[in-house]
Amino acid sequence: MRDRPFDEVKADMNDGKSVLSVAYNLIRQMQAEASADDLSAEQDTIARNVAGVAYAGAADTTTAAAESFVLAMAMYPDVQKRAQAELDAIVGPSRLPGFSDLDSLTYVRAVVMENLRWMPTVPLGIPHRLIEDDEYNGNHIPKGAIITPNVWAMMHNSDDYPEPETFKPERFIGSDGNINSAIRDPRTIAFGFGRRACPGSDFAISLLSICVASMLHVFDIQAGIDDHGQPVILSSETGGDAIASPLTFPRRMRSRSIQAERLIRDAALDAEEVDLL
Ligand code: HEM
Protein backbone atom coordinates (compact mmCIF):
# COMPACT_ATOMS: atom_id res chain seq x y z
CA MET A 1 0.00 0.00 0.00
CA ARG A 2 2.87 2.40 0.74
CA ASP A 3 5.49 1.53 -1.89
CA ARG A 4 3.68 0.24 -4.96
CA PRO A 5 1.53 3.30 -5.75
CA PHE A 6 4.44 5.60 -4.87
CA ASP A 7 6.85 3.75 -7.18
CA GLU A 8 4.24 3.88 -9.96
CA VAL A 9 4.01 7.67 -9.63
CA LYS A 10 7.81 7.95 -9.72
CA ALA A 11 8.06 5.68 -12.78
CA ASP A 12 5.32 7.69 -14.55
CA MET A 13 7.14 10.92 -13.75
CA ASN A 14 10.34 9.52 -15.22
CA ASP A 15 8.38 8.58 -18.36
CA GLY A 16 6.93 12.10 -18.54
CA LYS A 17 3.27 11.07 -18.00
CA SER A 18 2.23 11.88 -14.44
CA VAL A 19 -1.25 12.49 -13.09
CA LEU A 20 -1.66 15.11 -10.37
CA SER A 21 -1.69 13.44 -6.94
CA VAL A 22 -0.48 13.85 -3.35
CA ALA A 23 2.64 11.79 -4.16
CA TYR A 24 3.32 13.79 -7.33
CA ASN A 25 3.06 17.10 -5.49
CA LEU A 26 5.31 15.95 -2.63
CA ILE A 27 8.01 14.70 -4.99
CA ARG A 28 7.88 17.89 -7.07
CA GLN A 29 8.00 20.08 -3.94
CA MET A 30 10.97 18.20 -2.49
CA GLN A 31 12.81 18.27 -5.81
CA ALA A 32 12.30 22.03 -5.97
CA GLU A 33 13.50 22.52 -2.37
CA ALA A 34 16.63 20.43 -3.00
CA SER A 35 17.15 21.88 -6.53
CA ALA A 36 17.73 18.27 -7.64
CA ASP A 37 15.79 15.54 -9.47
CA ASP A 38 16.79 12.73 -7.07
CA LEU A 39 15.32 12.75 -3.57
CA SER A 40 17.64 11.95 -0.66
CA ALA A 41 16.91 8.68 1.17
CA GLU A 42 15.32 10.67 4.02
CA GLN A 43 13.13 12.76 1.68
CA ASP A 44 12.08 9.61 -0.15
CA THR A 45 11.02 7.91 3.10
CA ILE A 46 9.11 10.98 4.28
CA ALA A 47 7.29 11.34 0.96
CA ARG A 48 6.40 7.61 0.90
CA ASN A 49 5.10 7.70 4.46
CA VAL A 50 3.03 10.85 3.96
CA ALA A 51 1.51 9.62 0.68
CA GLY A 52 0.89 6.16 2.21
CA VAL A 53 -0.87 7.57 5.29
CA ALA A 54 -2.95 9.93 3.12
CA TYR A 55 -3.96 6.97 0.94
CA ALA A 56 -4.83 4.81 3.96
CA GLY A 57 -6.90 7.58 5.55
CA ALA A 58 -8.55 8.80 2.38
CA ALA A 59 -9.32 5.90 0.06
CA ASP A 60 -12.04 3.92 1.84
CA THR A 61 -13.57 6.87 3.72
CA THR A 62 -14.09 9.21 0.78
CA THR A 63 -15.27 6.35 -1.45
CA ALA A 64 -17.86 5.31 1.16
CA ALA A 65 -19.04 8.91 1.50
CA ALA A 66 -19.35 9.22 -2.29
CA GLU A 67 -21.35 5.97 -2.35
CA SER A 68 -23.79 7.18 0.28
CA PHE A 69 -24.26 10.39 -1.72
CA VAL A 70 -25.19 8.42 -4.88
CA LEU A 71 -27.61 6.31 -2.83
CA ALA A 72 -29.21 9.39 -1.25
CA MET A 73 -29.77 11.03 -4.63
CA ALA A 74 -31.64 7.98 -5.93
CA MET A 75 -33.70 7.74 -2.72
CA TYR A 76 -34.48 11.48 -2.63
CA PRO A 77 -35.13 12.60 -6.23
CA ASP A 78 -36.54 15.98 -5.10
CA VAL A 79 -33.23 16.81 -3.43
CA GLN A 80 -31.43 15.78 -6.58
CA LYS A 81 -33.65 18.02 -8.74
CA ARG A 82 -33.22 21.01 -6.45
CA ALA A 83 -29.42 20.68 -6.47
CA GLN A 84 -29.45 20.30 -10.27
CA ALA A 85 -31.59 23.43 -10.63
CA GLU A 86 -29.02 25.36 -8.57
CA LEU A 87 -26.17 24.02 -10.72
CA ASP A 88 -28.05 24.90 -13.92
CA ALA A 89 -28.56 28.46 -12.69
CA ILE A 90 -25.03 29.06 -11.36
CA VAL A 91 -22.80 26.96 -13.64
CA GLY A 92 -24.86 26.57 -16.81
CA PRO A 93 -24.75 23.77 -19.37
CA SER A 94 -21.49 24.47 -21.18
CA ARG A 95 -18.94 23.56 -18.48
CA LEU A 96 -18.39 21.44 -15.38
CA PRO A 97 -18.51 23.12 -11.96
CA GLY A 98 -15.18 24.25 -10.53
CA PHE A 99 -13.98 24.90 -7.00
CA SER A 100 -14.62 28.63 -7.43
CA ASP A 101 -18.35 27.89 -7.94
CA LEU A 102 -18.77 26.17 -4.58
CA ASP A 103 -19.27 29.36 -2.58
CA SER A 104 -22.32 30.18 -4.73
CA LEU A 105 -23.70 26.61 -4.60
CA THR A 106 -25.32 26.77 -1.16
CA TYR A 107 -27.73 23.89 -1.68
CA VAL A 108 -24.97 21.64 -3.03
CA ARG A 109 -22.87 22.45 0.05
CA ALA A 110 -25.87 21.56 2.22
CA VAL A 111 -26.15 18.23 0.35
CA VAL A 112 -22.51 17.48 1.29
CA MET A 113 -23.19 18.35 4.94
CA GLU A 114 -26.34 16.23 5.01
CA ASN A 115 -24.48 13.37 3.39
CA LEU A 116 -21.93 13.36 6.23
CA ARG A 117 -24.78 13.42 8.76
CA TRP A 118 -27.28 11.00 7.23
CA MET A 119 -24.86 8.10 6.78
CA PRO A 120 -21.75 8.82 8.86
CA THR A 121 -18.73 7.18 7.23
CA VAL A 122 -17.04 6.31 10.54
CA PRO A 123 -20.15 5.72 12.72
CA LEU A 124 -18.25 4.89 15.91
CA GLY A 125 -15.28 7.18 15.25
CA ILE A 126 -11.88 6.01 16.44
CA PRO A 127 -11.42 5.07 20.13
CA HIS A 128 -9.45 7.52 22.28
CA ARG A 129 -7.70 6.87 25.61
CA LEU A 130 -8.05 9.42 28.39
CA ILE A 131 -4.74 10.94 29.48
CA GLU A 132 -6.32 12.33 32.66
CA ASP A 133 -9.41 11.75 34.82
CA ASP A 134 -12.56 13.33 33.39
CA GLU A 135 -16.26 13.73 34.18
CA TYR A 136 -19.22 13.55 31.82
CA ASN A 137 -22.86 14.07 32.88
CA GLY A 138 -21.86 13.42 36.49
CA ASN A 139 -20.02 10.19 35.65
CA HIS A 140 -16.37 9.83 36.60
CA ILE A 141 -14.21 8.54 33.74
CA PRO A 142 -10.77 7.47 34.97
CA LYS A 143 -7.46 8.22 33.25
CA GLY A 144 -6.59 5.37 30.86
CA ALA A 145 -10.25 4.53 30.00
CA ILE A 146 -11.03 3.99 26.32
CA ILE A 147 -13.81 6.18 24.93
CA THR A 148 -15.74 5.27 21.78
CA PRO A 149 -17.59 8.28 20.35
CA ASN A 150 -21.06 7.33 19.10
CA VAL A 151 -20.91 9.48 15.97
CA TRP A 152 -24.02 7.85 14.51
CA ALA A 153 -26.10 8.78 17.58
CA MET A 154 -24.82 12.38 17.53
CA MET A 155 -25.72 12.69 13.85
CA HIS A 156 -29.18 11.22 14.48
CA ASN A 157 -29.99 13.22 17.58
CA SER A 158 -33.45 14.61 16.82
CA ASP A 159 -32.88 17.64 19.10
CA ASP A 160 -30.13 18.83 16.76
CA TYR A 161 -31.52 17.32 13.56
CA PRO A 162 -35.32 16.81 13.53
CA GLU A 163 -36.49 13.82 11.45
CA PRO A 164 -32.94 12.49 11.48
CA GLU A 165 -33.67 9.50 9.21
CA THR A 166 -34.69 11.79 6.35
CA PHE A 167 -32.10 13.17 3.93
CA LYS A 168 -32.98 16.85 4.13
CA PRO A 169 -30.24 19.36 3.16
CA GLU A 170 -32.75 22.20 3.78
CA ARG A 171 -32.15 21.72 7.53
CA PHE A 172 -28.81 23.53 7.11
CA ILE A 173 -30.19 26.51 5.19
CA GLY A 174 -31.52 29.54 7.04
CA SER A 175 -34.38 31.84 6.05
CA ASP A 176 -31.83 34.17 4.40
CA GLY A 177 -30.86 31.39 1.95
CA ASN A 178 -27.38 30.91 3.47
CA ILE A 179 -25.95 28.05 5.54
CA ASN A 180 -27.43 28.49 9.03
CA SER A 181 -24.56 28.49 11.54
CA ALA A 182 -27.05 27.78 14.38
CA ILE A 183 -27.43 24.18 13.14
CA ARG A 184 -24.53 22.01 14.23
CA ASP A 185 -22.18 21.45 11.30
CA PRO A 186 -21.71 17.65 10.88
CA ARG A 187 -18.09 18.30 9.96
CA THR A 188 -17.45 18.97 13.66
CA ILE A 189 -18.47 15.34 14.38
CA ALA A 190 -17.69 13.29 11.26
CA PHE A 191 -13.92 13.76 11.35
CA GLY A 192 -13.26 12.89 14.98
CA PHE A 193 -12.23 14.91 17.97
CA GLY A 194 -9.25 16.48 19.71
CA ARG A 195 -5.69 16.59 18.54
CA ARG A 196 -5.97 13.32 16.60
CA ALA A 197 -8.96 14.57 14.57
CA CYS A 198 -8.77 13.84 10.85
CA PRO A 199 -6.03 15.94 9.23
CA GLY A 200 -7.60 15.29 5.81
CA SER A 201 -11.01 16.85 6.58
CA ASP A 202 -10.59 19.95 4.38
CA PHE A 203 -9.24 17.80 1.58
CA ALA A 204 -12.14 15.36 2.00
CA ILE A 205 -14.74 18.14 1.95
CA SER A 206 -13.20 19.69 -1.20
CA LEU A 207 -13.09 16.30 -2.89
CA LEU A 208 -16.66 15.40 -1.92
CA SER A 209 -18.02 18.82 -2.83
CA ILE A 210 -16.56 18.83 -6.34
CA CYS A 211 -17.56 15.18 -6.82
CA VAL A 212 -21.16 15.90 -5.70
CA ALA A 213 -21.40 19.07 -7.83
CA SER A 214 -19.90 17.43 -10.94
CA MET A 215 -21.99 14.27 -10.75
CA LEU A 216 -25.24 16.12 -10.19
CA HIS A 217 -24.44 18.53 -13.01
CA VAL A 218 -24.19 15.82 -15.64
CA PHE A 219 -26.02 12.73 -14.35
CA ASP A 220 -29.53 11.76 -13.35
CA ILE A 221 -29.19 9.09 -10.69
CA GLN A 222 -32.01 6.54 -10.33
CA ALA A 223 -32.57 3.23 -8.52
CA GLY A 224 -32.86 1.36 -11.84
CA ILE A 225 -33.59 -2.29 -12.53
CA ASP A 226 -31.83 -5.35 -11.10
CA ASP A 227 -30.49 -8.37 -13.02
CA HIS A 228 -33.97 -9.97 -12.90
CA GLY A 229 -35.70 -6.93 -14.38
CA GLN A 230 -37.17 -5.85 -11.03
CA PRO A 231 -36.94 -2.29 -9.66
CA VAL A 232 -34.01 -1.97 -7.26
CA ILE A 233 -35.24 -1.40 -3.70
CA LEU A 234 -32.93 1.02 -1.91
CA SER A 235 -32.45 1.48 1.83
CA SER A 236 -30.18 3.40 4.16
CA GLU A 237 -28.83 0.20 5.71
CA THR A 238 -25.06 0.04 5.95
CA GLY A 239 -22.45 -2.68 6.13
CA GLY A 240 -18.74 -2.75 6.88
CA ASP A 241 -16.75 -2.66 10.10
CA ALA A 242 -15.19 0.67 11.08
CA ILE A 243 -16.21 2.32 7.80
CA ALA A 244 -19.89 2.20 6.87
CA SER A 245 -20.99 1.97 3.26
CA PRO A 246 -24.45 1.39 1.79
CA LEU A 247 -25.69 -2.19 1.39
CA THR A 248 -27.90 -1.26 -1.57
CA PHE A 249 -26.81 0.84 -4.53
CA PRO A 250 -28.54 2.52 -7.49
CA ARG A 251 -28.11 0.91 -10.91
CA ARG A 252 -29.05 3.71 -13.30
CA MET A 253 -27.02 6.83 -14.11
CA ARG A 254 -28.09 8.69 -17.24
CA SER A 255 -26.44 11.78 -18.71
CA ARG A 256 -28.82 14.71 -18.26
CA SER A 257 -28.52 16.07 -21.81
CA ILE A 258 -26.44 15.96 -25.01
CA GLN A 259 -24.33 18.79 -23.60
CA ALA A 260 -23.84 16.86 -20.36
CA GLU A 261 -22.74 13.83 -22.35
CA ARG A 262 -20.16 15.97 -24.14
CA LEU A 263 -18.84 17.28 -20.80
CA ILE A 264 -18.48 13.70 -19.50
CA ARG A 265 -16.58 12.59 -22.63
CA ASP A 266 -14.32 15.66 -22.57
CA ALA A 267 -13.52 15.14 -18.88
CA ALA A 268 -12.69 11.47 -19.53
CA LEU A 269 -10.39 12.42 -22.42
CA ASP A 270 -8.71 15.14 -20.31
CA ALA A 271 -8.07 12.62 -17.53
CA GLU A 272 -6.41 10.25 -20.01
CA GLU A 273 -4.26 12.94 -21.56
CA VAL A 274 -3.00 14.74 -18.45
CA ASP A 275 0.72 15.33 -18.83
CA LEU A 276 2.04 17.73 -16.29
CA LEU A 277 5.72 17.63 -17.03
C1 HEM B 1 -15.20 11.49 4.21
C2 HEM B 1 -13.90 11.38 4.38
C3 HEM B 1 -13.22 11.14 5.71
C4 HEM B 1 -13.76 10.85 6.94
C5 HEM B 1 -15.23 10.69 7.32
C6 HEM B 1 -12.64 10.73 7.86
C7 HEM B 1 -12.80 10.47 9.21
C8 HEM B 1 -11.74 10.30 10.10
C9 HEM B 1 -11.88 10.01 11.50
C10 HEM B 1 -13.21 9.84 12.24
C11 HEM B 1 -10.64 9.91 12.02
C12 HEM B 1 -10.29 9.58 13.49
C13 HEM B 1 -10.17 10.89 14.27
C14 HEM B 1 -10.09 10.66 15.76
O1 HEM B 1 -9.19 9.93 16.21
O2 HEM B 1 -10.94 11.21 16.50
C15 HEM B 1 -9.69 10.13 10.95
C16 HEM B 1 -8.33 10.08 11.09
C17 HEM B 1 -7.44 10.27 10.04
N1 HEM B 1 -7.74 10.63 8.75
FE1 HEM B 1 -9.59 10.89 8.00
N2 HEM B 1 -11.48 10.95 7.19
C18 HEM B 1 -11.77 11.21 5.88
C19 HEM B 1 -10.89 11.52 4.87
C20 HEM B 1 -9.52 11.59 5.02
C21 HEM B 1 -8.60 12.03 4.01
C22 HEM B 1 -9.03 12.56 2.64
C23 HEM B 1 -7.34 11.92 4.53
C24 HEM B 1 -6.00 12.25 3.93
C25 HEM B 1 -5.81 12.90 2.80
C26 HEM B 1 -7.48 11.40 5.87
C27 HEM B 1 -6.43 11.11 6.71
C28 HEM B 1 -6.56 10.73 8.03
C29 HEM B 1 -5.44 10.40 8.92
C30 HEM B 1 -3.96 10.41 8.52
C31 HEM B 1 -5.99 10.12 10.17
C32 HEM B 1 -5.23 9.71 11.45
C33 HEM B 1 -4.95 10.96 12.29
C34 HEM B 1 -4.27 10.65 13.61
O3 HEM B 1 -4.47 9.56 14.17
O4 HEM B 1 -3.54 11.51 14.12
N3 HEM B 1 -8.81 11.22 6.14
N4 HEM B 1 -10.38 10.38 9.79
TrEMBL record:
GO terms under cellular component: membrane
**GO function term, MF aspect, one:** monooxygenase activity
Main localization (coarse) = membrane
Protein location: Membrane
User: What keywords would UniProt list here?
Assistant: Heme, Iron, Membrane, Metal-binding, Monooxygenase, Oxidoreductase, Transmembrane, Transmembrane helix
Read off the lineage from the record: Eukaryota, Fungi, Dikarya, Basidiomycota, Agaricomycotina
Query: Which protein is depicted?
Result: Cytochrome P450
**What is its pathway?**
Secondary metabolite biosynthesis
Q: What InterPro entries does this protein's entry cite?
A: Cyt_P450 (IPR001128), Cyt_P450_CS (IPR017972), Cyt_P450_E_grp-I (IPR002401), Cyt_P450_sf (IPR036396), Cytochrome_P450_fung (IPR050364)
